[in-house]
Amino acid sequence: MASSAVIRRLVTFIVFFAVISVWTTLQLHRDFIIGSNYEAKPASIQARVEHVQDQQPLTIWPGSNHSYYKVFYNRLPKCGSTSVKILIRELKEKNGFKFFEDKDYEIQVLSGRNLSRFAQMVDRLPTPSIYDKHIFYVDFQQFGLDQPVYINLVRDPVEQRISDYYYMRFGRHGENQTAQQRHRRTEKERSQTFDECVFNNLWECNASGAKRFLMTQFFCGQDSICMEPSQAAVEKAKENIRRHYAVVGVLEEFSSFLKVLEMVMPQFFRGAHDTWRGIESQQMEYQKTAKKRPPSVKARTIMRQRLQLDYQVYDFIKDRFHMQKTQLGIVD
Ligand SMILES: *[C@@H]1O[C@H](CO)[C@@H](O)[C@H](O)[C@H]1NC(C)=O
Ligand SMILES: *[C@@H]1O[C@H](CO)[C@@H](O)[C@H](O)[C@H]1NC(C)=O
Ligand SMILES: *[C@@H]1O[C@H](CO)[C@@H](O)[C@H](O)[C@H]1NC(C)=O
Ligand SMILES: *[C@@H]1O[C@H](CO)[C@@H](O)[C@H](O)[C@H]1NC(C)=O
């Protein structure tokens, strides 16, 4: 009798254990597929996988302590942000959220009171909402505020520099002179090609120029270590991406970026891909930078070297994005 009781208990235990395992697996699977949803509990959406290059765990989903209703798009210049903004404007009615667009063109570095005031302003915005600004990453937690979840879009650093270079001279197709004048370049500067800029070590292209590690700075943030180029700034940028960015896409795979956003944040980006297909053709022409002259291979090679910190960040982002796509089953 005693032994059959033991067996019964053992069987009960095994069945119980099996049920729990299956349930857990299903839960994980559900969180992964459906629960890519932002409303899911933070703890359950921490999918960690090994990062091939860094041998460090990659957090596909943002960690805890994020406010799941506020998305911060600290957009980089000349990386497709106009397209993303146009798309968000289309989606905000459909998906029922607010979109707060910053009108400031300049990239600002904030410190002290200005930074805390800025964080408080963003914190007070109604939710659910997306806020965008050209600004280096801001750590809200240092002010005891909820961290919004971040998204961003980058592109190949040399391509970004080329696009920025000509944009600062000639603006976009269809833009009029007043808009162009804002870009403040002299006649002489306007006549110089990107190749000349690179080969003559001019300030916009040289190794000590203001934008020599701009991509790194956007993810590194407002700290003093982010103000001078260094490996520490790169590491800090990667750490912030891991911990605080739900999605950082690459412009070269814009359509996948939209699909990932749709799966990770359906409450904001449901229908993004189809909506974009509907408006894409009329947008692309307008957004092209005017008079862009393709630089030589040699100039590209030199710039690639000068931008090697940004390439570390860019390669990290690209690997992470590809891993995220794989996890979500997005193929193209
Ligand atoms: C989340 O915030 C709480 C209180 O602000 C803090 O104690 C905790 O360590 C934070 N957790 C993480 C993972 O950052
Ligand atoms: C705050 O911003 C104002 C205006 O842009 C500037 O003059 C001031 O120096 C800034 N203060 C700090 C502490 O950065
Ligand atoms: C050109 O500039 C004028 C004056 O600022 C403005 O009213 C107009 O809308 C602009 N046109 C375009 C196409 O941007
Ligand atoms: C970059 O250009 C600026 C302005 O012309 C100059 O002062 C600086 O020395 C240059 N730096 C390098 C590394 O060539």
From TrEMBL:
Membrane-topology annotation of the record: Single-pass type II membrane protein
Pfam families the record matches: Sulfotransfer_2 (PF03567)
Main location (coarse class): Golgi
Superkingdom of origin: Eukaryota
Keywords, sorted A to Z: Glycoprotein, Golgi apparatus, Membrane, Signal-anchor, Transferase, Transmembrane, Transmembrane helix
Transmembrane stretches, start-end: 6-26
InterPro entries on file: Heparan_SO4_2-O-STrfase, P-loop_NTPase, Sulfotransferase
Molecular function GO terms recorded: sulfotransferase activity
Protein localization: Golgi apparatus membrane
GO cellular component terms, semicolon-separated: Golgi membrane
Family: Belongs to the sulfotransferase 3 family.
Protein name: Uronyl 2-sulfotransferase-like
Source species of the chain: Branchiostoma floridae (Florida lancelet)
Gene name linked to the record: LOC118419412
